[in-house]
Amino acid sequence: MSTENPCPSCGALHDEATIAAALKTCPSCGYYYRMEPAERLSYLVDPGSFVEFSANLRSLNPIDLAGYEEKLSEAEAKARMKEAVITGTAAIEGKPVVLALMSFNFMGGSMGSVVGEKITRALLKGAQERKPVIIYTTSGGARMQEGIFSLMQMAKTSSAVAELGKAGVPYFVVLCDPTTGGVTASFAMLADVTLAEPGVLIGFAGPRVIEGTIRQKLPEGFQRAEFQLEKGFVDAIVPRKEQRRFLSLLIDLHRPACGNGQGWDVDETPQGLSREA
Amino acid sequence: MVRDGMWTRRPRGFPGRPRMQKSLEKKLEELKELAQKQGIDVQEELSQIEAKIRAASKTEQAWRRVELARHPDRPYSLDYITRIFDNFIELHGDRYFADDPAIVGGLGFLNGMPVTIIANQKGRTLKENMRRNHGMANPEGYRKALRLAKQAEKFRRPIVTFVDTSGAYPGLGAEERGIGEAIARNLMELSQLKTPIICVIIGEGGSGGALGICVGDKIYMLENAIYSVISPEGCASILLRDASRARDAAAMLRITSADLLEFKIVNGVIPEPPGGAHTDVDATARAIKEVLVRDLSDLCQRNPAVLVRYRNQKIRKIGHWHEGSDE
Question: Is A274 in CB contact (< 8 Å) with chain B?
């Protein structure tokens, strides 16, 4: 029972299996469909290597907002996730990493207390266990249903990025569609190397808000990955099928070349470089 | 600049007793009277009306704070800076692109102690508001703030920030020059700065644009200031799907100084004169100064590394969640 959906970009008809085989891109025009965390794991990490942590964190209703609990239940059913991010340890081409994957399906990937806490734990775990941290972001921003507590998650996650930095452990972000608001203005923009998928929307204010402010249409391609690359906020745009290899390479390129095993990967110091007193 | 005597005119009316509350209370009295006369049991109706009054007064109170925080006569940062600090010298520019007048920064003495001051600045007149972009900063503002913060750390000066903005500027140029990155970097760097930081929200604490200069060891709010993840108007149009319900959204979002104190997001609330800060700017400035002097004399004694550790521990604890067991 294969269903054929027209590609939103070129209108070509492909069945789901074909699209999935192309890592959720259109085989005709290369259009990128949004991807859920489970789908990412399948192409990104070594099979069976992902071990989730902090899986049972659930949102409370810190400002007693009417209807928030119901909204969370709906999101859970829709996204088949307990929150808008999953975190775990994994291996990429045999290299241990800490991974956080956000889901836009869960309340627009919005960051409330749980997302903030899980991202923070992932960053601190990376610092403690000396494993590179890789975060795939997709988010509409802070989760307003948690009021001021969601705003504070921006400061919290940014403080955790600083901790990882002090430990000298690399931090890579892959910006996915869309990454905006409070996530852009915190951990998403603080990586050592910032990557983006082709064509994704990356910004602080959403396009409609900007259009409302300047009272004119935004130019074609505004805030897209290619635009952000040109403006200097993205290091490289990496297609899905190359991400695993690219990240693996980045990890190796971030191993300290000098300093006699003083770096973050101290336990994996190549044999030739002994650490004599 | 601040004109002297600006605040001598009579304050505009402090919002009176909320209309809705008044009419409901009247209704309640009538009902009670009627019930007594005729001997009917109206307990249920009574409790319903009382609940309505409570909700209405909560909404009205929150909205009154919003109105005061945005009051056209509300003192802005420079009004306080000139009253609190001696020999204030403004420093300009982010050293990359431009000077952003929506954030002012500089040096001054607080009772003889050198201090770095960083503040959102709104304009009083139309002309000044055009220059200051209504207090909505561009990336340059945040980068200037960071430059001055780093400078403060180098010379072991404490930092005082005054927060008063409806938000960062959602414009074309701001996006092109990375407003998100600028705010993000401030959050990260301010969390690590090895010098005391005190932040005072004096008017509007609008979302990420406010937070970008509001990370510190002590956070205070003026009594009628607000601090929120989104404007009541924005929240009303998204959550309530009705932009005209900003009053309800303001109450829902819990953005008053009392709320934030209860949430332990702020360390304290600095009281304002009965009619609001604009009715007596000198008194409000004195109240702020008192808190700054008291806290800095303590914070400046602390070991900077301990200060930073404590600041980060505090930030990382914020949030409410439930952690279930594995199965």
Answer: no
For A:217-246, CB contacts with B below 8 A are 218, 222-223, 231-233
B208 touches A at CB < 8 Å: yes
Contact A152 B315 (CB under 8 A): yes
Sequence-distant (6+) residues with CB within 8 A of B238 are A144, B230
Q: Tell whether the torsion through CA atoms of A257, A263, A268 and A272 is positive or negative.
A: positive
Q: What is each CA distance from B42 to A225, B49, B55, B316, in whole angstroms?
A: 64, 11, 20, 51
Nearest CA in chain A to B319: A113
* Model confidence pLDDT, tens digit, residues A25-47: 999 999 999 999 999 999 999 99
> Which residues lie closer than 8 Å to A40 by C-beta, 6 or more apart?
A101, A136
ipTM of the complex: 0.94
Q: In CATH, which of 3.90.226.10, 1.10.10.60, 3.40.50.12780, 3.20.20.80 is domain A35-255? A: 3.90.226.10
Residue B232 amino acid letter: P
Domain boundaries, chain A: 1-33, 35-255
pTM, to two decimals: 0.91
